[in-house]
Specification:
CATH topology of the largest domain: Fumarate Reductase Iron-sulfur Protein, Chain B, domain 2
Number of domains: 2
Number of helices: 11
Order of helices and strands: EEHEHEHEEHEEEHHHHHHH
Number of strands: 9
CATH architecture of the largest domain: Orthogonal Bundle
Structural class: alpha+beta
Bound molecules: iron/sulfur cluster, FE3-S4 cluster, FE2/S2 (inorganic) cluster
CATH class of the largest domain: Mainly Alpha
Strand content: 15-25%
Strand order of the largest sheet: 4-3-7-5-6
Largest sheet: 5 strands, mixed
Shape: elongated
Mean pLDDT: 93
Helix content: 25-40%
CATH superfamily of the largest domain: Alpha-helical ferredoxin
Low-confidence stretches: none
């Protein structure tokens, strides 16, 4: 990254430049994998765009710049721009990440952007998420409790809450599932995101559907497809210990005699 100096020769960082009101930009080349069956049939291709961006911009800002000022046909999904909605997972320099959580200074001067793997590409960076959500729905990812309404709130100790705290953080971005080599080769595998969301309810002391979920995940499409390669944990933008959650579920199936 190019650096600036003041009149005394001191190197100025981005915050110095902001304080001085200066607009400091870097040149960023985006190499983007494109796909549009209406234009070029089934062949994908690469396009390159050179833009000026501020080092603290997010990669999502850079993609917006491409779409708004260079090529309006570029297709991508995004919504919140703050790492919460999970809609802009893509492969950035060969690794799954959210464009809105990737900072330009960390990828400049050249970045490669591709759609996440293992799901059908519809156009450019947009994939068909339906197979992913089908896996998610299959594990009953909601609270099940048929005991009727209690007279008071359903209380939980800090320890009971802690048992599933990590897996409540999932934003369903699919970065984990689409980084899993087992999922790439076997579309029947429910994938790590579905298991994370099953974990969130299996270990919730207020829930009564754990046995049903463990039964579903003990089937051949479930947790025992996992070969503990840890790609999912590395890919998760929320820092969830995905592989540990999968191990918890495997252990419950093997030893808790559900
Ligand atoms: Fe995304 Fe992490 Fe949830 Fe997987 S576990 S879908 S990577 S937030
Ligand atoms: Fe896949 Fe994660 Fe298991 S990457 S093989 S689900 S540890
Ligand atoms: Fe919502 Fe990135 S746009 S997570």
């Amino acid at each position: 990254m190019a650096s600036d100096t003041n009149e005394l020769g001191d190197i100025l960082d981005a915050s110095d430049l902001r304080a001085a009101g200066a607009r400091h930009t870097v040149t960023l080349t985006l190499k983007i994998r494109r796909y549009n069956p209406e234009v070029r049939g089934e062949e994908s291709w690469w396009d390159e765009f050179e833009i000026q961006a501020e080092p603290d911009d997010r990669l999502l800002d850079a993609l917006h710049q491409v779409k708004w000022y260079h090529d309006g046909t570029l297709a991508l999904r995004r919504s919140c721009a703050h790492g919460i909605c999970g809609s802009d997972a893509m492969m950035i320099n060969g690794k799954n990440a959210l464009a809105c959580k990737t900072i330009v200074r960390d990828v400049a001067p050249k970045v490669t952007v591709e759609p996440i793997r293992g799901l059908p590409v519809l156009k450019d960076l947009i994939v068909d998420m339906e197979p992913f959500f089908a896996g998610y729905r299959s594990v009953l990812p909601y609270l099940i409790n048929d005991s009727g309404e209690p007279d008071t709130e359903r209380r939980q100790s800090p320890e009971e809450r802690h048992a599933f705290d990590d897996t409540t953080k999932c934003i369903l971005c699919a970065a984990c599932t689409t980084s899993c080599p087992i999922f790439w080769g076997d579309e029947e595998y429910v994938g790590p995101a579905a298991i994370v969301n099953a974990h969130r309810f299996i270990y919730d002391s207020r829930d009564e559907g754990g046995r049903d979920r463990l039964k579903i995940l003990s089937e051949k499409t479930g947790v025992f497809r996992c070969r503990t390669t840890f790609n999912c944990t590395e890919a998760c933008p929320r820092g969830i210990e995905v592989t540990k959650a999968i191990q918890d579920v495997k252990r419950s199936i093997l030893f808790d005699r559900f």
